[in-house]
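In this section we turn from sequence analysis to structure. A common task in structural bioinformatics is to predict how a protein folds when a small molecule is present, because the ligand can shape the pocket around it. The inputs are simple: the amino acid sequence and a SMILES string for the ligand, here 2-acetamido-2-deoxy-beta-D-glucopyranose. Study the lines below before reading on.
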Amino acid sequence: MAGLAWKWPRTRLPVGASALGVFVLCWLYVFPVYRLPDEKEIVQGVLLQQGRAWRRNHTALALFRKLLEECCDPGQLFAMTKQNSPMGKNLWFDGELLYSFTIDNATYSLFPQATPLQLPLRKCSVVGNGGILKRSGCGRQIDSADFVMRCNLPPLSREYSKDVGTKTQLVTANPSIIQKRFQNLLWSRKAFVDSVKVYNHSYIYMPAFSMKTGTGPSLRVYYTLQDFGAKQRVLFANPNFLRDIGKFWKSKGIHAKRLSTGLFLVSAALGLCEEVTIYGFWPFSVDLRGKFISHHYYDNVLPDSGFHAMPEEFLQLWFLHKSGVLRMQLEQCEDPLMQPAT
Ligand SMILES: *[C@@H]1O[C@H](CO)[C@@H](O)[C@H](O)[C@H]1NC(C)=O
Ligand SMILES: *[C@@H]1O[C@H](CO)[C@@H](O)[C@H](O)[C@H]1NC(C)=O
Ligand SMILES: *[C@@H]1O[C@H](CO)[C@@H](O)[C@H](O)[C@H]1NC(C)=O
């Protein structure tokens, strides 16, 4: 026995198959397959954390803010201003590959001299529109912040105020909404002006230079509000800021074609505010008790799949919550039945 020469282990696989196996292993090593946990696993993971007290970690927050500062400089760049976008400057649309535009006299005159916000903002609420807000009783808590940001011109009528509040200082509006809901403001503009009255004195933050087709409608929003003497003012999102924020999250592993408005807004808030609490950021079909919920707090219209990467985005935000960088509110704030009627 001892005299047997050492031999390569025998295999029944033909040489070609072994080579293929080695090739696949090498391929996987170079391009690992990231398996995103599925909805059930994510919800389980979140449940395990519930009940643990959340504490802000000022070290982690300062570190994260420094990263944001270095990549994207939110304080200076999040909106177009005369300072950061001089006349004649050429900028690329951040949502297009091939198109750029030059800031002309007329457009330039619509920009404020510098960021009009009093920075740093203190406590901010960022409100996503997730169905988890329904019957959350979070309205009062949301409104207790100094600065409230909302996404995509959400409804704030009385039936929702207990859950989402009414205060708004900044609300985003995609040009596609202006097109769908208000016929690009080419016909009656009064319906639009009336519909934004609920946002009181807020800024309407529009990605006017992300897609070529979005510029016209965004400028019309600006002129419409001006013509009607409305209280709201348009702030134009800076395409360089949006692109940099997109790259930042891509480097952290988000593989979407485009970030959702919500993640842009949370990123901006982390750069602009001292304390950030986010509400309604929950892209799943069940709540923490396993009950089915609608997609938004006001409807159940599902987004186009494949465009945004909502579970990936959620996991990043959840990581920030666990690190003490921001607070994510997922449970009820108050029992809505216990609140006095408003
Ligand atoms: C706070 O964050 C820092 C940096 O991420 C970390 O080193 C530290 O352990 C955290 N502190 C607590 C109490 O979690
Ligand atoms: C830009 O517009 C202002 C007034 O709106 C005008 O006085 C100025 O001459 C214009 N400049 C150019 C370069 O067109
Ligand atoms: C509208 O804004 C003004 C000034 O910022 C504030 O005093 C008022 O309470 C706000 N109204 C509502 C309904 O939020």
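The longest helix spans residues 15-30. As an exercise, try to locate the residues that line the 2-acetamido-2-deoxy-beta-D-glucopyranose site and compare them with your own expectations.
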